[in-house]
Design brief:
By secondary structure, the protein is an alpha/beta fold. It has two domains: 169 residues, no CATH class; 241 residues, Rossmann fold (3-Layer(aba) Sandwich). It is 50% helix and 7% strand. It has a six-stranded parallel beta sheet with strand order 2-1-3-4-5-6, with helices on both faces. α11 runs parallel beside α13. It is elongated. The protein starts with a helix and ends in an 8-residue tail after the last helix.
Length: 446
């Protein structure tokens, strides 16, 4: 069969063995068969540059078939019951390949399932019918037993599915990030519901910034947070942060709590004070709250709130260990639940903190165990970093378990790229999520 003939015989010939007689797929199949016969364990990484495995013609065929599936999907998207049935079938398909998929790729697929389901039910209004049809079409392609590279072929049978999914995820990466933000805001607003009647009672909102901020007045962050505490006077606690990491951390852990405690005592009544700390500043907030918790609680005749406990405290991207013994104590030094906003895609904490401290910070993953009067709010997950990566290249290899994605984010490259801004450690980014979470009078962005 000639190459021209095989391209004209339709979908039935696309799964024929002759289709692969003279390309890389055929050579890979032969290599896999030989290695399997020798009892070798095979992983995707060992097969070489997978992104180059599908030649241009195979990719074109997969793209053409995907377009046809998208047209078919237009007949489904108006019927929510059909969409739900399709999602159930695709979930079963996905679970078969969970062990082979990159965890972040798998997370993106499950996000697509939730996003399509929420859009089909009318709960989420952020997707057009065209986008939904595109997503449903990609799922139909993966479910189809007849595609460009038959799924029955070991390992390589998934390459065309991964190619289609990588293109699809890349095309809707912004929509996925918007949907994840919508989900997290919805969850955070539910968590923060108990705070809502009391934000207006705050008279002093004290901002404690992070490392290397002595020359920053935090005016941008204060402007973001002003609507949260409409009746508060904002004050900045500037500390000796323009120093080496070790020196700054030592200050936080030793004399810093004394100085912040003295700053707080300008108010005889702490029950109308809110603390907002970022990065190492959040560590300082936790240390100071732990000190307050060791004092006997003092109350007044006219107020049920303790006079020597801060009313509210918020940790944003906190640079403090997940199992730090001061955290449970800190939760007792504040009246309302101590609220920690963390981001799994905060690469500053993921790299710099882990490298310097050899520990995991609470700002990266939330607290290690349970704790009374404490809550976690996720700002982002690892998926956001992965989506940033797929926006740059529709990588087939990225969908499979591999070290390639991890090594692509080297520390040197991160610093050269402007690490604090690019990887979401900015105080303002956390503050923005905090504000949008707190102001529940506004519906989550659709």
């Amino acid at each position: 069969m000639s190459e021209a003939d095989s391209g004209e015989t339709g979908t039935s010939s696309s799964s024929s063995p002759e289709r692969f007689s003279n390309n890389k797929i055929a050579r890979l199949i032969a290599e896999i068969a030989a290695r399997t016969s020798r009892g070798e364990t095979i992983d995707v990484e060992s097969l070489g540059p997978v992104d180059e495995t599908l030649d241009d013609r195979t990719q074109a065929l997969a793209t053409k078939m995907l377009q046809a599936k998208c047209e078919d999907a237009k007949q489904i998207v108006d019927n929510s019951a059909d969409v739900v049935s399709l999602l159930d079938a695709v979930k079963n398909w996905t679970e078969r390949f969970t062990r082979k998929l990159n965890p972040d790729a798998f997370e993106s697929l499950t996000t697509i399932f939730r996003m399509v389901g929420a859009a089909a039910s009318g709960e989420y209004l952020g997707l057009s019918k065209t986008t939904i049809a595109c997503l449903v079409g990609a799922l139909l392609y993966c479910l189809s037993p007849i595609d460009v590279v038959p799924d029955v072929l070991p390992i390589v049978g998934l390459f065309d599915d991964a190619f289609v999914l990588s293109m699809t995820v890349k095309s809707v990466a912004d929509e996925l990030k918007t949907f994840r933000m919508w989900e997290r805001l919805k969850t955070a607003r539910s968590i923060l519901a108990s705070y809502l009647p009391y934000f207006r009672d705050i008279k002093r909102a004290i901002i404690v910034p992070g490392w290397m901020t002595e020359n920053d007045d935090c005016s941008a962050e204060i402007e973001v947070l002003k609507p949260v505490f409409p009746n508060a006077t904002f004050e900045l606690f500037s500390w000796k942060s323009n120093a080496s990491w070790d020196a700054a951390r030592t200050y936080i852990d030793e004399q810093g709590p004394d100085e912040l405690d003295e700053f707080l005592r300008k108010s005889n009544d702490l029950s109308s004070v809110a603390l907002v700390g970022h990065s190492l500043g959040a560590r300082l907030v936790a240390r100071t709250l732990a000190r307050l918790s060791k004092e006997p609680s003092k109350t007044s005749f006219w107020s049920r709130k303790p006079l020597n406990r801060v009313s509210q405290a918020f940790l944003l991207g906190a640079a403090i260990d997940v199992d730090d013994p001061d955290l449970p104590l800190a939760a007792k030094g504040v009246t309302a639940p101590l609220c920690n906003f963390f981001s799994q895609s905060d690469r500053v904490l993921g790299y710099l903190y882990r490298v310097s401290e050899q520990r995991t910070p609470i700002g990266l993953s939330g607290m290690a165990g349970s704790c009374e009067n404490y809550i976690d709010c996720a700002v982002t997950g690892r998926e956001e970093s992965w989506l940033d990566f797929t926006e740059k290249a529709a990588s087939i290899l990225a969908f499979f378990k591999s070290t390639t994605f991890l090594t692509s984010f080297s520390l040197a490259d991160s610093i050269a790229s402007g690490l604090p801004e690019y990887y979401g450690h900015q105080f303002k980014l956390y503050a923005q999520f905090f504000k949008e979470s707190a102001l529940s009078g506004v519906e989550p962005t659709s």
